[in-house]
TrEMBL record, chains A, B:
The gene is truA. The lineage of its organism: Bacteria, Bacillati, Bacillota, Clostridia, Lachnospirales. This is tRNA pseudouridine synthase A. InterPro entries: PsdUridine_synth_cat_dom_sf, PsdUridine_synth_TruA, PsdUridine_synth_TruA_a/b_dom, PsdUridine_synth_TruA_C, TruA/RsuA/RluB/E/F_N. Residues 18-110, 152-254 form the Pseudouridine synthase I TruA alpha/beta domain. The active site is at D61. Its EC number is 5.4.99.12. It catalyses: uridine(38/39/40) in tRNA = pseudouridine(38/39/40) in tRNA. The keyword Isomerase applies.
C-alpha cells in the first residue's frame, strides 16, 4: 500500500504483542541476529500477501521481555482487525504471541501518541538461583531489604530530569520524564519493581533497578537517589541491571478510545 | 569407592536439586538424549575425581521440572558435605542448580525411606498463551471453573487405589497411595494444583491434572472423580496433561533428622 493513491479500504491495525525476549536481539530490525520486528513482518507478509512494516511502540533491548508491547501496520486485507491475532498466532513461533489485534484510527502512532508505559523488573533474591526463573529475573544472592528499596524509589515519583538514569550513548535532548507510580513488591524470594510513567529514557528502568539493588544491599542510603537525580550524570547512578529481569508489562493510550 | 573395603572416611551426600526440565530427557540415564542424572554424574566426577553414580528420589519424565528433587551419592572427598553445593554449582549449566548439599546417614536411601512428595501442576488459563510461562505451564484457552476443580480434587484426599490414575505401561503391583493434601489455587490467569502424598504412580499427577481440567471445563461433574477411582482402570480417567506444567516442588523425609 506504500505507493500510489491510498486505498479507500486501507486500515491501520494495532497489535498487542507478548514475547519471551530470550532468543531475540531485541525488537528492532538488525543486520545480525533475529528480532521480534523481523518475525512479525515476515509472518504478516505470509498471512496478508502484502509487504508489511510494523512500527513498534517500545524498541526493547536484546533479552528484554514484553507482555504488552504495541505495534501498528497498514493493510488493505479483508480479514477483520480483531481476527488477525488468531490467524497470526497460528504462524508465529511459541515465544511471540499476539494478545489482541484491532483497527485503530489512521492517525494513531504508537510512539507519538501519549501513553502510560508500565515495566516490571524482577529480582530473584535467594541463596541459589532458581533454574525455572533464571531467564525472567536477575539473581541476587545477598539478602535485599525491600523496605529501603521502596523508600529510595519514592524519590523518583513525579516529574524529574532523569539524565543520571539514562545510558550515556543516547541522542535524546529532553531527559525530563514523569513517573506516575513505582512500587517494590516482595513475594517469597522474589522482588518486583513495578514502575509506570509517561516515557522512559534508554536503559532507564534497568539503571533504576541496578540503583535500587544497591540500596537494598545497604551500599547506598535511600536518600542517595535524590542526590543521583540532582547530579544529572550517568556515572552518579548504580549499574545497569541485566536485561533478563525486565518485562514491558503494558502500554495504555488514554486518547485511543 | 565401589570396590574393596569401605573407606573409613567414606560418606553419603544428599543433594537437593532444582532444574528446568525443558532441555532434558528427564532424570534417568538414557542411551539417546541428555538427562539430569548424566549431567550430575559427569560434573561430580570432574569435581571429586571419583566415578560417581547418583541415585535420585524421583525419576522425573522428559520436560518435567523440579525445585527440590533429591539425590544421594557416596564419596571419600574431603570437601565438607555442605560445601559441595557451592563447588558443584560452579560447574553445572544454568538450568540445574544444587539448592543444598549435606552429609546423611550411610543407610539413607531417597526412594526406600518414607517421604512426603509435593508436586505442583500449573495451568495458564487465558485467551492467548503467555510466551514467558509457556515452558512452565499447560495453556488452556477455555475458562476453567477452579471451584469445581477443588470440589473434584477433594475426592482424591486420603488413601485410595489410584490404579485409574496410573499410566498403563507400569510394572507396579501395589497401586494404593495416600494423598495428604490437594489444593487448587487461582491467581489471575494461572491455576496451580498443589498435591502432596506418600508416593505417586507413574504419570499420576499429570492424569489427575488432566482429569481436573475436564472438570474445570464442565465436561465432567466433580463426583466423576469418585467414579473414576472406583473403576480402577486407566481408561476411566481424563487425559494425561502435558509435562511442562509439572514441577516437583519438594521431598520431605520425616525420619531424616
Amino acid at each position: 500500500m506504500q505507493k500510489g493513491m491510498p486505498y479507500l479500504d486501507m486500515k491501520r491495525i494495532m497489535l498487542r504483542v507478548a514475547y519471551d525476549g530470550t532468543n531475540y536481539c531485541g525488537w528492532q530490525l538488525q543486520p545480525n541476529g533475529i528480532t521480534v520486528e523481523e518475525v512479525l513482518n515476515r509472518n504478516l507478509k505470509a498471512l496478508l500477501k502484502e509487504d508489511i512494516n510494523v512500527i513498534g511502540a517500545s524498541r526493547t533491548d536484546s533479552g528484554v521481555h514484553a507482555l504488552g508491547n504495541v505495534a501498528i501496520f497498514d493493510t488493505d486485507t479483508r480479514i477483520p482487525g480483531d481476527k488477525i491475532s488468531y490467524a497470526l498466532n497460528q504462524k508465529l513461533p511459541g515465544d511471540i504471541v499476539i494478545q489482541e489485534s484491532r483497527e485503530v484510527p489512521a492517525d494513531f502512532h504508537p510512539r507519538r501518541c501519549n501513553s502510560i508505559k508500565t515495566y516490571r523488573y524482577t529480582i530473584q533474591n535467594s541463596r541459589f538461583p532458581l533454574p525455572t526463573t533464571r531467564l525472567y529475573s536477575y539473581f541476587v544472592h545477598y539478602p535485599l531489604n525491600e523496605l529501603l528499596m521502596q523508600e529510595a524509589a519514592a524519590y523518583l515519583m513525579g516529574e524529574h530530569d532523569f539524565k543520571s538514569f539514562c545510558s550515556a550513548n543516547t541522542h535524546v535532548k529532553d531527559t525530563v520524564r514523569r513517573i506516575y507510580d513505582i512500587n517494590v513488591e516482595k513475594t517469597d524470594e522474589r522482588i518486583d519493581i513495578i514502575v509506570s510513567g509517561n516515557g522512559f529514557l534508554y536503559n532507564m528502568v534497568r539503571i533504576i533497578a541496578g540503583t535500587l539493588v544497591r540500596v537494598g544491599l545497604g551500599a547506598y542510603p535511600p536518600i542517595k537517589v535524590q542526590e543521583i537525580l540532582n547530579k544529572k550524570e550517568r556515572s552518579a547512578a548504580g549499574p545497569k541491571a541485566p536485561a533478563e529481569g525486565l518485562t514491558l508489562l503494558k502500554l495504555e493510550y488514554p486518547d485511543l478510545m
